[in-house]
Design goal:
Distance between the termini: 54 Å
Low-confidence stretches: none
Strand order of the largest sheet: 10-15-14-13-11-12
Structural class: alpha/beta
Strand content: 15-25%
Helix content: 25-40%
Largest sheet: 6 strands, mixed
Number of strands: 23
Mean pLDDT: 92
Radius of gyration: 30 Å
C-alpha cells in the first residue's frame, strides 16, 4: 500500500528534541501514544495522554530498564505483514495490536565514551531494545514508519506517510544502527581490547556537504564526517564566510592545519600551502611578521593558496593576507577587526577551528586501492634532543640546530622526495614530490634563489641555512647540491648503505650533520 494512516505510535527516545511537538501533533490526529521511561514522563509533563509500554506488553520494565520493549507484543506489532491472513490470525490469537509508527533514537554511546566515562557506564549505554525496534520497523516499512532523526518528525505531523517516505526512513534507520554498531565495535577493538588493526574495521561516516565536484570537474564528490569522537579538524571547523569549500579546498586546508598544528605550542607561526604542499612556513615574534616571512619564500605559489595560523588573526595579519587572492584561511580564532577585513573579500573562505589538533594524537589513515584499502597509523612520530645523533666532525651551532629542527618539522609535511631549506625560523626553499632527492634539492635551491631576486635581497636565504631531507640521502650528490646552495647544516634520518660516503662528503664540506633515525615519507 502507498499511503497509510498512523493509529498507534511507540515513542522511546534518548534525545528528546522535537518529541513533544511530534507527539502533540499525532495526538491531535487521534493517534494512540505508547511510550517508555523518561520519554513517557516528558510527554505526560506536556499534558499528553500516554500508555505505558508495560501496559501494552503485560510485563513491567525490569532489570534497570534493560528489558522493556523486547517482547512479542512489541515486535509482533511491528513485524506482522498487514493483509497476510496467517500473520493477522496470530495477532488476533495472541492479542497483538499493530504498531504503525516507531520513533527511536539510541542511547548516547559515543557521547558517553567522549566524556571519559568508566567501562561499566559505557557498557550500560549500549542500546539493545532500541536497535531491535528500529530493525523490526524498518524491515516492515511497507506498513510501518520508522523515525530515527528528529529532522524528519515534521514529515509525519499529519499522521500519514507515503511508501516513498517510508523507504527513505528505513534506509536512514539501517544506516543509523550500522553506524551505532560500528562505534561500539570500534570501542571494543581499540579502547577496550587495545588492538591496533582489528580483524574487521568498520568505518562510520555521516555525509556533510555535497561538493560541486571532486579533484576535477568530471568527478563527483562529498564530504563525510566521522560519527564518533573526532579531533578538532577541518571537518569540525566553523566556516565564517566565503564560497562553499571544494574537494581540493578540504584537502589543502587539512594539509595546512596538520602542519600548523606542529607549531601550536610555539611562537606565532604561519603556513602557506598550495596543492597540499607547504610553499612557505615561518615563525616570528608576531603573526604579521611570520606571514611576511612565509610569503617571501614563494610569492608566486602563495597566490590562490591556503593559509593556516596558530594564533587568532589580528588586523595586521589580515591586511597582508587580503592583499592578494587567497582561497582559504584556517585559524583558531579572529578578532573583530580581522573579521571586518575578511568580510570585504566575499569569496575568501575563513575557517575557525577554536583550537588546533594534537600532532601526536593516535589514529588511523586509510587509502583506497583497487580491491581494498591500505590502513596505517598516523605519522605522529616526533623527535627531541635525545634522539639526535651528530655524525660529522663539526657540531651544529645553536642556531643551526634550531634551523634543522624547524626544517625537519616542515619536511614531515612535504610530499616525497622532500627537501626543505630553513634559516632563522622560516623556510628558504621547498622541493617536493620529485622522483629523486637530487632534483628536490636543486628545485628547492632554485626557488630560494628566485625568491631572493624577487625580494631584492643581497643573497639567497639558503646561504647559511639548514637543510632537511625526509629520508636518507642514498648518494652524496643530493647533499652536495645543498652545499652548493649554501647550506651549512643537514638533518636526515640516516640508514643508507652509503652513509659513510655521505658523512665523508659532509665532513669535507665542513657541514654539521644530524641523524634522526626516523623517516617521514609522505606520498
Amino acid at each position: 500500500m502507498d499511503q497509510i494512516k498512523i493509529s498507534r505510535a511507540l515513542l522511546s527516545v534518548s534525545d528528546k528534541t522535537g518529541i513533544v511537538e511530534l507527539a502533540t501533533a499525532l495526538a491531535a490526529q487521534g493517534v494512540e501514544l505508547v511510550s517508555t521511561g523518561g520519554t513517557a514522563t516528558a510527554l505526560r509533563d506536556a499534558g499528553l495522554a500516554v500508555r505505558d509500554i508495560s501496559d501494552l506488553t503485560g510485563f513491567p520494565e525490569m532489570m534497570d530498564g534493560r528489558v522493556k520493549t523486547l517482547h512479542p507484543k512489541v515486535h509482533g506489532g511491528l513485524l506482522a505483514v498487514r493483509g497476510n491472513a496467517e500473520h493477522e490470525a496470530s495477532m488476533a490469537e495472541h492479542e497483538i495490536g499493530a504498531i504503525d509508527l516507531v520513533v527511536v533514537n539510541l542511547y548516547p554511546f559515543a557521547q558517553t565514551v567522549a566524556r571519559g566515562a568508566d567501562r561499566e557506564t559505557i557498557i550500560e549505554n549500549i542500546d539493545i531494545g532500541g536497535p531491535s525496534m528500529v530493525r523490526s520497523a524498518a524491515k516492515n516499512h511497507e506498513s510501518v514508519v520508522i523515525l530515527t532523526d528528529p529532522a524528519d518528525y515534521p514529515l509525519v505531523h499529519g499522521a500519514t506517510t507515503t511508501l516513498e517516505q517510508r523507504r527513505k526512513f528505513a534506509a536512514k534507520a539501517y544506516a543509523a544502527t550500522a553506524a551505532y554498531d560500528s562505534m561500539i565495535s570500534s570501542w571494543f577493538a581499540f579502547a577496550d581490547q587495545g588492538e591496533a588493526f582489528p580483524e574487521m574495521l568498520n568505518l562510520s561516516l555521516k555525509r556533510g556537504a555535497a561538493l560541486r565536484y571532486g579533484e576535477n570537474p568530471h568527478q563527483s564528490a562529498a564530504f563525510y564526517a566521522a560519527t564518533g569522537p573526532a579531533a578538532q579538524g577541518i571537518g569540525q571547523a566553523r566556516q565564517v564566510q566565503g564560497k562553499e569549500l571544494s574537494y581540493n579546498n578540504y584537502n589543502d586546508a587539512d594539509a595546512a592545519l596538520e602542519l600548523i598544528s606542529e607549531f601550536r605550542d610555539g611562537p606565532p607561526s604561519v603556513v602557506i600551502v598550495k596543492h597540499a604542499n607547504p610553499c612557505g612556513v615561518a615563525s616570528a615574534d608576531t603573526l604579521a611578521e611570520a606571514y611576511a616571512a612565509a610569503f617571501a619564500c614563494d610569492t608566486v605559489s602563495a597566490f590562490g593558496g591556503i593559509i593556516a595560523v596558530n594564533r587568532p588573526l589580528d588586523r595586521a595579519t589580515a591586511e597582508q593576507i587580503t592583499s592578494i587572492f587567497t582561497e582559504v584561511v584556517v585559524a583558531p580564532g579572529a578578532d573583530e577587526e580581522a573579521l571586518a577585513l575578511f568580510a570585504a573579500k566575499k569569496n575568501l573562505r575563513l575557517l575557525l577551528t577554536d583550537g588546533l589538533p594534537d600532532p601526536k594524537r593516535p589514529g588511523l589513515m586509510a587509502k583506497s586501492i583497487t580491491g581494498g584499502w591500505l590502513v596505517q597509523s598516523r605519522d605522529n612520530g616526533g623527535i627531541d634532543a635525545g634522539d639526535l645523533k651528530v655524525v660529522t666532525k663539526r657540531q651544529p651551532t645553536e642556531q643551526e640546530l634550531a634551523d634543522c629542527l624547524f626544517a625537519w618539522t616542515v619536511a614531515k609535511h612535504v610530499k616525497s622526495n622532500a627537501i626543505v631549506y630553513a634559516k632563522g625560523g622560516s623556510t628558504a626553499g621547498v622541493g617536493a614530490g620529485q622522483m629523486n632527492r637530487l632534483e628536490s634539492a636543486r628545485i628547492a635551491a632554485w626557488k630560494a634563489k628566485d625568491a631572493a631576486e624577487k625580494a631584492g635581497w643581497d643573497e639567497t636565504r639558503t646561504i647559511g641555512s639548514a637543510v632537511a631531507s625526509d629520508a636518507f640521502f642514498p648518494f652524496a650528490d643530493g647533499l652536495l647540491a645543498a652545499v652548493e646552495a649554501g647550506a651549512t647544516a643537514v638533518i636526515q634520518p640516516g640508514g643508507s648503505i652509503r652513509d659513510d660516503e655521505v658523512i665523508a662528503a659532509a665532513d669535507e664540506a665542513g657541514l654539521a650533520m644530524i641523524f634522526t633515525g626516523m623517516r617521514h615519507f609522505r606520498h
